[in-house]
Structures are given as C-alpha cells and as structure tokens.
C-alpha cells in the first residue's frame, strides 16, 4: 500500500486526516464530554470505516505527532493502535518517525526535577507531566518501543531511604504516564538496558542497602518481570547497554574487587548465560550508545572520551576540546541526529554544548551546538516515534 499513497496522494491523505483529527480536539469540557460519548468503544470495529485495516493503519501513521493525544480519544481501537509496537513500525515505513531528546533537569534548589523535550534544533517543546510516585534517586531509565520506562530507585524520608520496585511508563505519543508491573526485587543504583525488545535490570542495592547479584527481565507483551540467572558476584553503581543480542554490564563496584571494577559481565540473551571480560571502563560518570559504539566519560579523565567497540572488544581515547567549556568538571551525554552531545554539569556564562560527530571527516568531528537544556542535565534519552 505505500505505493498507492506516495507523492502528492500521500500528502493529501495526511492533510485530510490531520484536519479530521483537529476537528475532534476538545476545546472545552463540554466538547470533551461529547467526544467521549461519541467514541467507538468496540476494539473489534474497523479503524476507519470503509478501508481495510492495513490501509487505515498506514493513514493514521501519516498524522503529525502533535495530534496523537487527540487521536487517542477518538476510540479504543485508535488508542490501542497508537500504544502498540506496530504503530511505531508503520511510522517508520511511512518515513514519519520524529526524533526527540528527553532530558531530566534538576530544578533550581536541587531538590526536585522535571523532564523536558528538545527537538533537533534545540527548541524546548514542552514539559512532561510530573512522574508518578514519590521523588526518587538511583532509578533506572530505558526506552522501549517509543516509550520511556522509569524503574525502581530509592526515596528518602526523614533521613531513611526506602528502595522501590515500582515501574512507570511514559507514552510519548499520548503524553501520559501509567504504572507497569513491579520488579521482583526493589533496587537502586543498578544497571539496566533494552536488548531485543526486552528490558534487563541487574545488581544494585536492595531494601536493606545490601548489594545485589540478582537480575531480572521485563517482557512488554506480558507486562511481567522474570528472574534470570544472577551475576557471579554482587555489583552496584554499574550501567548496562545492549549490542547484537548481548547485555553488557560495566563500571561500578563489586564485592570481589578492591576499588572500582574493570570486569565486564556479558549476558547472552539466547543462551541465557553470563561470561566475563576484563577490559572494562571504571568510575564512569556518563555513558551513551551511538551506532555500534559505547561512549564513556571516566571520573579520572574528564577531558577524553573512552570509546568501546564490542565487535573486537577494543577501546580508543579521543581528546575533548576546550571549546565550549573551560571547566574540567565533566559532562552528561545526549544523542540526537546520530551525534553525541556533551552537556556541562556546571553552569557557565556563554557555554555552548559540545557535539561529536563520529561520521565526520578526520579533524572535523568536534563542533559546538545551540542545543542546551534549561538547567542541569541529570540524564537524557532519545525517543523516535
């Protein structure tokens, strides 16, 4: 069907459908009630009457992203489709995927935080609704099927920390939070990553502050966490990322090492087994995955990027220029448009974000960018939807 909707015809369908959706956007509480009463609630009904479902799905995929929340209120069938992995696939096939940077910002005073959304031009588009539940630290953040998952963490009340197993999901299409199944173990300062459509959580601290070796996997199709083979030793303050069906756990500390661990725990998701490597990165303050490489910033050397290539288990070091920041105080990373963004952890007058392009010609990899969060960046994720 993409061939039938190409060129001018595709634009026409997009405009007509967009206008149709805009007519359904509620402008007041009465309109909202009227829309709800008229909504089609039958999940078995046609997506668009008179059209085969495959054509209707492709049509919905052409609607601009700003109209998704209104689309979700049209019917349960539309809502279900917008929330599905299939919708992201259709958007990709239609060439309509949009890339956005979601940045967790520390508010002034350092006591609270909020998420804000930036586009490829660095323009702030909106703030996310507040995250549900108590304010926590040491939580994990993963992107799965165009959605943001915020997992576990620890909240402190009257000087006493309380570890959590709660998991919340932010739907970037519908601009709303929902609660998912709890993890099997409450934990914080743990490693987490998505590999082949599954989410993995490994190690960290538990309820009583004990270091953990347990690991578990989340299946979005069943909304269930399943315990898996544990690490050989407890590990905390670590991070993880996925590459070609394997989960890499790196950094942090373990009970079997003096100081920070250089060991890398590697989990084969097909064989369900752990193995170990010995050339990891230690005391990592920031990390990001771009293409087939892992980028790290170590506390002991914050003027060099450590770049890991899993294909041959090799590292290389790239100097970070002084342009943009004269302070050797470290950075937080962001990924946008296939480039690595370095946000300074300190406010500096006139500071410009550093940008590293791994595909640029030698000598031209570093630039400066106007993309800049409104405050101190705690972490960031990239969502395509």
List keywords for this structure.
globular, disordered N terminus, single chain, Kelch_1, 4-stranded antiparallel beta sheet, kelch repeat, 385 residues, mainly beta, F-box_dom
Structural description of this entry:
Keywords: Kelch repeat, Repeat. InterPro entries: F-box_dom, Kelch_1. This is F-box domain-containing protein. The protein has 385 residues and is mostly beta strands. Among the domains are: 2-93, no CATH class; 131-282, 6 Propeller (Neuraminidase), CATH 2.120.10.80. Helix content is 15%, strand content 39%. It contains six helices and 26 strands. The protein has a four-stranded antiparallel sheet, with no helix packed on it. A four-stranded antiparallel sheet has the order 4-5-6-7, with no helix packed on it. The protein has a four-stranded antiparallel sheet with strand order 8-9-10-11, with no helix packed on it. Strand 1 and strand 2 form a beta hairpin. It is globular. Residues 1-40 have low confidence and may be disordered.
Summarize the structure.
Residues 49-87 form the F-box domain. The chain is mostly beta strands.
How does the SSE layout of this entry go?
Blueprint: H1 7-23, H2 29-38, H3 53-61, H4 68-72, H5 76-82, H6 85-93, E1 99-106, E2 113-118, E3 124-127, E4 140-144, E5 147-157, E6 160-171, E7 176-180, E8 191-195, E9 198-202, E10 215-219, E11 224-228, E12 235-236, E13 239-243, E14 246-250, E15 253-254, E16 264-268, E17 273-277, E18 284-290, E19 293-298, E20 301-309, E21 314-319, E22 331-336, E23 339-344, E24 353-356, E25 366-369, E26 376-384
Antiparallel strand pairs: 1-2, 1-26, 2-3, 4-5, 5-6, 6-7, 8-9, 9-10, 10-11, 12-15, 13-14, 14-16, 16-17, 18-19, 19-20, 20-21, 22-23, 23-24, 24-25
Protein name: F-box domain-containing protein
Keywords: Kelch repeat, Repeat
InterPro entries: F-box_dom, Kelch_1
